[in-house]
Amino acid sequence: MQTYIVNSPFDMHIHFRDDNMLKVVAPLSSSTFVGGIIMPNLVPPVSTKQEVIDYKNRIMDAIKGDDFTPFMTLFFKPYTKEFLSDVKDVITAIKLYPAGITTNSEGGVESIDTVALAPTLNAMAELNIPLCVHGETNGFVMDRESEFMSVYEELAIAFPKLTIIMEHITTKDAVDLVQKYDNLYATITLQHLLITLDDVAGGMLAPHLFCKPIAKRPEDRDALVAIALSGNEKIMFGSDSAPHPKHAKEACGCAAGVFTAPIALQVLTQLFETHNSLDNLQKFVSDNACKIYNMKAKEKSVTLVKKDFSIPEYYEGHGEKVVPMYFGQTISWSIEN
Ligand code: NCD
Ligand code: ZN
Ligand code: ZN
């Protein structure tokens, strides 16, 4: 049987949530991945050192001894250098959300003004704390990411020593921009390598494929696939696995977020194999992240086997039910237990 081994896969953009949902979803990442960037958009958002420490402890309890390192983040606010120096040892990055642009981002930044934000961003650059950004304006939904490119450019130019991660990019414009500035990097999700707006809303509405930023045009997806398959060093995998309860997705007023943690590595393997690019999967899911975040990976080898995997209709536990992308479908790669 055909097998493929990935060493130390990372998921550099994950939503673990809290309480019962955390208990259901965290093990579905920690059983496969060796680590990942944990997003801070809880309610209220993670914004003090004690909150980071407490949240990390709850995650460690939830993953029950799995070999998985949660890289913690803070929700961006204008922080002082003293505060950042103190919190640095417990965080890996800080995540900036424009106010109200996505799930639980109400306390985000009202306007991204490089002068007003300079004290915080300069301190982050000096302390080597990367800035992760949800890059969308509040313009027309299909144009929000492209309109944000000028903001990324301003940030990249004004703070050349700051590592800036363009999170979950969805457009050809973003693929072009990330290659233009040395201090810009990007994550790409599973769904944006696979779907376009047609899959979300072109036929019957598919709430489990609805997320922010919305999936775009075929040419955008093609550009994302091309750069991911190429192994380009500026690009890393970040699933943006974003679980919401089944009832909140299958609702009038569907919550934004696609839950992919339990299927991500298997589907990526299938995608890279289909494009004869399995040789570059290791870079996309591990090596590039280590270089960008300047870290050494712990050993954890994951064996994928070419064997059917029937994706469940939902995952449940602790009173929660959550539906994964491609629920009820069968894919051709599984993780060997
Ligand atoms: C994410 C969530 O549910 O927290 N939703 C999403 O659609 N991507 C938030 C985010 O990453 O923007
Ligand atoms: Zn986001
Ligand atoms: Zn996210």
Strand arrangement within the widest β-sheet reads 2-3-4-5-6-7-8-9
Query: Radius of gyration in whole Å, from Cα?
Result: 19 Å
Taking the sheet with the most strands, its summary is:
8 strands, parallel
Structural class: alpha/beta
Shape: globular
Please give the CATH architecture. Alpha-Beta Barrel
CATH topology: TIM Barrel
Which small molecules are bound?
Answer: N-carbamoyl-L-aspartate, zinc ion
Output the CATH homologous superfamily: Metal-dependent hydrolases
Instruction: Specify the CATH class.
Output: Alpha Beta
| Number of domain modules | 1
Low-confidence stretches: none
How much of the residues is beta strand, in percent? Answer: 15-25%
Sketch the topology as an H/E string, one letter per element: EEHEHEHEHEHHEHEHHHEHHHEEEEEE
Number of helices: 13
Mean pLDDT rating: 98
